[in-house]
Amino acid sequence: MEGSMADFLGIHGTALAVREQRLQLLAANIANADTPHYKAQDLDFNGALNAALAAQRGGPLEQGNAISTAATNAHYLRPSSQPSLDGNTVDGDRENAAFAQASLEYRASLSFVEAKVRGMLTAITGQ
Amino acid sequence: MSNLPIFDVAGSAMNAQSVRLSTVASNMANADSVSGDPNTVYRAKQPIFTTEQVGNNPALQGVRATQVLDSQAQPIKRYEPGHPLADGNGYVYAPDIDPVAQMVDLISASRSYQANVEVFNSAKETALATLNMGR
């Protein structure tokens, strides 16, 4: 059943989970804006999504791990736009903007998933 | 619904920034606390931030004010023989606190705190929207 539900949601279910992973990383960047030697991190969304989708074709049991593994593999350290004395590479304004955008993208993916769920509910209840 | 780590990360940062706000408040409040003994005069406090892993994902780093260190700056020696706390030679000692630097620190800490509150709120809205899916 799990596998067929994931098939039904298509790319959107996986995209939602990958977007959530990226939101977490951006939140960590904002939290560490004043921590010495902290390096800003980010996620290559395309790479993570493709890797997660490819792993899921392997079998339904792998799904939970596939997303976090793909997200971990797509990590990279984002270079700083300007040097800082304490070795921190977080740019506050840029992080805030990135978080706002990522949050909006999450909502977009969420509404795609929601539309699918509503369609399924209509099919089940017939109303 | 596993985006709860965001709350831990943003919460840890709010906690650390509030420690920083408190130390700035303490420094500003004691900027004029003089003493007759250079060893007992107030010393400016500064919190040290370090990353702290949240949950079991090593990439997800929160922040923690691990310790609050005293400034190494020498107290300022002032000749005020009429001061009730003056030592035998007529000197009083005041902490070397730069109010401008403290204000800059205060504003920076306050902005960072606000940024984390924003993260917290939008994570909350996102989580609620996810919970209400299909309703």
UniProtKB/TrEMBL annotation, chain B:
Keywords: Bacterial flagellum, Cell projection, Cilium, Flagellum. It is found in: Bacterial flagellum basal body. Residues 90-133 form the Flagellar basal-body/hook protein C-terminal domain. The keyword rRNA-binding does not apply. Pfam families: Flg_bb_rod (PF00460), Flg_bbr_C (PF06429). It comes from the Bacteria. Residues 8-36 form the Flagellar basal body rod protein N-terminal domain. Coiled coil: none annotated. InterPro entries: Flag_bb_rod_N, Flagellar_basal_body_rod_CS, Flg_bb/hook_C_dom, FlgC. The keyword Metal-binding does not apply. NCBIfam families: FlgC. Belongs to the flagella basal body rod proteins family. The basal body constitutes a major portion of the flagellar organelle and consists of four rings (L,P,S, and M) mounted on a central rod. The rod consists of about 26 subunits of FlgG in the distal portion, and FlgB, FlgC and FlgF are thought to build up the proximal portion of the rod with about 6 subunits each. This is Flagellar basal-body rod protein FlgC. The lineage of its organism: Bacteria, Pseudomonadati, Pseudomonadota, Gammaproteobacteria, Lysobacterales.
